[in-house]
Amino acid sequence: MKLADSAAGVVSIRHSGLHCVTAVVDRFMFHAPVFVGNLVLVFASLNYVGRTSMEVGVRVEAEDPRTGKRIHTNSSYFVMVALDDEGGPVEVPPLILETDEDRRRNEEGRQRAGDRRLRKKT
Length: 122
Fold this sequence. Notes:
The protein is of the alpha+beta class. It is about 30% helix and about 40% strand. Strands 1-4-3-2 form a 4-stranded antiparallel beta sheet.
C-alpha cells in the first residue's frame, strides 16, 4: 500500500507542482499475492482532476525474477489533495486530455468522483 500511495503522491505533485496529501483510498483490492523475493512494479496515472483534488489510478504487478512472469496483484484509486504553504486546499491545473484512453479514464474518474460525493452525503 505504501508503494502505491507514494506513486500516487509523485503523480499528483508532478501535475500540481504543490505539496499533496492522500484524502481517499478507493477500491484497494488484492487479486494475487506478492511473494517475498518478487519484484514489485507500480504504474500510476492521473485520471481526473477536480478543483483541488486529483484521482490517481495505481496498478501493481509482481514479477518473479527467476522466470520474468508478471502478475497483476492489485489496482486502486487514490484521491490526492493539493495544499498551499499554510496547509489549506488549493486549486490545481486542469488535466489535458490528449488520447481516447485519457478521455475514457477521465470520464470514469469523473463518475467515481460523483459516486464518492454521494457516499459522503449519506
